[in-house]
Amino acid sequence: GAAVASAGAQSGDGPVRCEIRSSVAGGMVSLQGVVESDTAVSGSYRFHVESAAGSGSSTIRQGGGFSAGPGTPAVLSQVMLGANGIYDAVLTLDADGISLECADRVGGQT
Fold it and tell me: Is residue 44 within 8 Å of residue 65, measured between CB atoms?
């Protein structure tokens, strides 16, 4: 099947930014929690994905420590789910005294 990519939700233009990226291929939706920074940064993240509609019910929670360098997006977490569902994804970052949250609703493609 054809692949569809989406930029997803972004946290803005600050020195540390988070993003939820989604893509659909082969009947699956891939969700990635991504951090970008203007300088070297380290901290912790939480990635929470919950089904909002569609067949079945899923709740996925991932998290841990991370470090990212300047100018290179770092994928912190990735999940693969059925593309027929609709999912609410939230990425929360705590890094060098900065707290960020990105949220997006994705899915529903068949």
Answer: yes
Burial of 31 (0-12, 13-18, 19+ CB in 10 A): buried
Would you mind telling me the total number of residues written for the chain in this entry? 110
Q: What is the DSSP string of 26-62?
A: TTEEEEEEEEEESS-EEEEEEEEEEEEESSS--EEEE
* pTM of the predicted model as reported, rounded to 2 decimal places: 0.83
Strands 86-95 and 16-25 come out as unpaired
The whole-angstrom separation of Cα 38 and Cα 82 is 34
Q: Pick from 50, 38, 40, 32: which is nearest to 12 by CA? A: 38
How far does Cα 65 stand from its chain's mean position?
15
Q: Mean pLDDT per segment of 10 residues, for the chain of length 110 residues?
A: 42 81 91 94 96 80 95 93 90 92 80
